[in-house]
Amino acid sequence: MVRVSQYLQLSLAELLSHGKLDTSISERVGFIVRHLLIALLVVVIPMLAHSEERPLVNAQANHPSLLTDIRYAGNNNFIGRPVAGYRAPLCLLSEAASEALDQAQKLAERHNLSLLMYDCYRPQRAVDDFVTWVAGTSPEPTKRAYYPSLDRSSLIDLGYIASQSGHSRGSTVDLTLVDRQTGQPLDMGTAWDFFDPMSHTESDAIELTAKNNRLLLRQIMSAAGFRPYYAEWWHFTLIDEPFPDTYFDHVIE
Ligand SMILES: [Zn+2]
Q1: 21/48 Cα distance (integer angstroms)
Q2: Residue 222: predicted pLDDT
Q3: What one-character DSSP code corresponds to residue 44?
Q4: Positive or negative, the Cα torsion across 50, 53, 59, 61?
Q5: What is the 185 CA–ligand 1 centroid distance (Å)?
Q6: Which of 39, 49, 89, 93 suits a disulfide with 73, CB 3.0-4.6 Å?
Q7: In the β-sheet with 232-238, what is the strand arrangement from edge to edge?
Q8: 219 close to 111: Cβ distance less than 8 angstroms
Q9: pLDDT in the model for residue 12
Q10: pLDDT tens, residue by residue, 36-82
């Protein structure tokens, strides 16, 4: 606001220094109005934007016992590098999803387990990054771990990557279960984000122990209000999600 008053003072001083309001008065009024508008754009609008409340919260800050390994913020993911929009390895979620996750964590702790979050809110620009990557020719350092039997160019047609993700609505999570004694993730039969039918929750191509672990994760998340996704054992969406039609694009930082 200092800059606004400076513009006004300068413009008024210019007017008064002439001693009279001559034929150029309309130009000078225009001068003031133009500079006042510029001052408003420069000073006031950023202040309003800064004060805008963000609808997502840091789930781990609210519930410190929650474990996180936000893979898209680092190199251990199917792209093999940090994904656009992930400037920090944070689990951001709507407040409703964060509270439901707290319930899930309490249920897991009854089994001496903990939730380990791989992904939470995902900015739209990260999803755009996936789509661009599919059509690109950059090196594929993590192909063996994430899509050993598939061509990268086929991942959209096969349904593994889409132009929008429920994660961008702030109430969808990817996670697994960790043994609190050993600190090790439970055997789920495949890695997170493994692009293969073996990742279907009820796949018969995995060992019984892994299948039971998947069903335990599904049972815990369902009891806490999340809906499972049949094709990815790690993916759950809050049934009563508060922003069902909004795909956010805030950077995670
Ligand atoms: Zn997911």
Answers
A1: 36
A2: 98
A3: I
A4: positive
A5: 17
A6: 89
A7: 67-68, 113-119, 172-179, 232-238, 226-229
A8: no
A9: 40
A10: 555 544 444 444 444 345 799 999 998 999 999 999 999 999 999 99
How far does residue 95's CA lie from ligand 1's centre (Å)?
A: 18
Which of 95, 140, 207, 232 is flagged as catalytic?
232
What is d(CA 230, CA 209) in angstroms, rounded to the nearest whole number? 18
Q: Tell me the H-state helices in the chain.
A: 2-17, 25-39, 45-50, 59-62, 95-110, 124-134, 143-146, 208-223
CA 214 / ligand 1 centre spacing (Å): 15
Write the pLDDT tens digit of every residue in 218-234.
999 999 999 999 999 99
In which residue ranges of the chain is pLDDT below 70?
Answer: 1-53
| 182 Cα to the center of ligand 1, angstroms | 26
pLDDT at 15: 40
Give yes or no: 232 in active site: yes
Task: Tell me the C-alpha distance between 160 and 232, whole Å.
Answer: 10
Q: How far is the CA of 232 from the centre of ligand 1 (A)?
A: 7
Q: Indicate if the alpha-carbon torsion angle 103, 107, 113, 118 is positive or negative.
A: negative
CA of 39 to the centre of ligand 1 (A): 44
Neighbours of 181 (CB within 10 A): 8
Looking at residue 6, its pLDDT comes to 46
What CA–CA distance (Å, rounded) separates 141 from 77? 10
pTM of the prediction?
0.79
Q: Which residue has the tokens 């400037």?
A: 87
The domains of the chain, with CATH numbers, are 2-50 (no CATH), 56-238 (3.30.1380.10)
| Both tokens assigned to 212 | 């039971």
Measured between alpha carbons, how far is 78 from 98 in angstroms, rounded to an integer? 26
